[in-house]
Amino acid sequence: ACRQLVYGDPHHLDGVRILGVDEHVWKHTRKPGQASNLVTILVDLTPLVDGRGPARLLDMRPGRSADVLSGWLKERDPSFREQIQVVTMDGFTGYATAVEEQLPQADKVMDPFHVVHLAADKLTSCRQRLQRETTGRRGRKDDPLYKHRRTLLTRTNYLTERQKHRLEMLWATDDDYVALEVTWLLYQDMIAAYAHPKKSEGKKLMKRIIHTLRKGLPKGLEELAQLGRTLWRRRKDVLAYFDIGASNGPVEAINGRLEHLRGIALGFKNLNHYILRSLIHSGQLQEKINAL
């Protein structure tokens, strides 16, 4: 019955204008030779953006690649593909490639969470590199860089006076930490751009960050240079958030609910069963099933 409600209902995909795409781990065990434990989930964000209701899970497909998303879109009617105006996603280039090929008219939005997460990864990489260069080993609990690893990732507004003092002491500890301080400042600027109450001003701040990283950076800022190349390549998708406002937040929320569902069930062995249970759980099919 559930399969018929989804795949046999010609109106299941009606009105989808804003599509969210993300990967999801459907099982945490994978033996050699077995298929990928990742699936691509597709979520309708239109009701949430319009204020009519929550986001809903549309479908799940095995694998995580451009071919997986492209194949799903090819199977849909041309009228469905033409009505898609916005696609939100993470930084995975495979999804971006599929959207460019199959939905050339749609705006791609790179989710703020994943953009900030990229910067956080570069901040952590910079800290780890300086740790190895200054001590010749990995961090230990009494090493300044290792001790403050979580404080470095905390948003400035949430830092206590004690934490602020610790960071000031860290910057004064060693001149070799200048690269980390510069990376940390840019990480905080990126968070501030997304948090700005005026989206237009936030967009200006983000543009400034992208163009700053695009310019020739001094030696010793390798992590920022890598981040700059990524942001420049995806700048249109990054800046689109400030104009459109849609994000992958609701998609991540559904992703979390599916993790909880799998935990309650103590795991699944059959992917088809898992997809159907997920659609019942997060695809707003419960009322339709009860009406059968």
Give a short overview.
With 292 residues, the chain is α/β, with parallel strands linked by helices. 59% of the residues lie in helices and 10% in strands. It is built from 16 helices and five strands.
Major sheet strand order: 3-2-1-4-5
Q: Classify the secondary structure makeup into a structural class.
A: alpha/beta
The biggest sheet, with number of strands, parallel, antiparallel or mixed sense and barrel status, is: 5 strands, mixed
Shape, per Cα inertia axes: globular
- Could you tell me how far the N terminus lies from the C terminus, measured between alpha carbons in angstroms? 8 Å
User: Uncertain spans, ≥5 residues at pLDDT below 50?
Assistant: none
How many structural domains does the protein architecture include? 2
The multimeric state of the shown protein is: single chain
Give the secondary structure arrangement, pairings included.
Blueprint: H1 2-7, E1 18-25, E2 38-44, H2 46-50, E3 56-62, H3 66-75, H4 78-83, E4 86-89, H5 93-102, E5 107-110, H6 112-135, H7 144-147, H8 149-152, H9 161-173, H10 178-195, H11 199-214, H12 222-233, H13 235-244, H14 249-264, H15 271-282, H16 286-290
Parallel strand pairs: 1-4, 4-5
Antiparallel strand pairs: 1-2, 2-3
Organism: Corynebacterium aurimucosum
Pfam families: DDE_Tnp_ISL3
Domain Transposase IS204/IS1001/IS1096/IS1165 DDE: 19-277
How would you describe this protein?
This protein is globular. It has two domains: 2-111 and 247-290, Nucleotidyltransferase, domain 5, CATH 3.30.420; 112-235. By secondary structure, the chain is an alpha/beta fold. α6 packs antiparallel against α12 (222-233). A five-stranded mixed β-sheet has the order 3-2-1-4-5, sandwiched between helices. The mean pLDDT is 91. The protein contains 16 helices and five strands. It comes from Corynebacterium aurimucosum. This is ISL3 family transposase. Residues 19-277 form the Transposase IS204/IS1001/IS1096/IS1165 DDE domain. InterPro entries: Transpos_ISL3, Transposase_DDE.
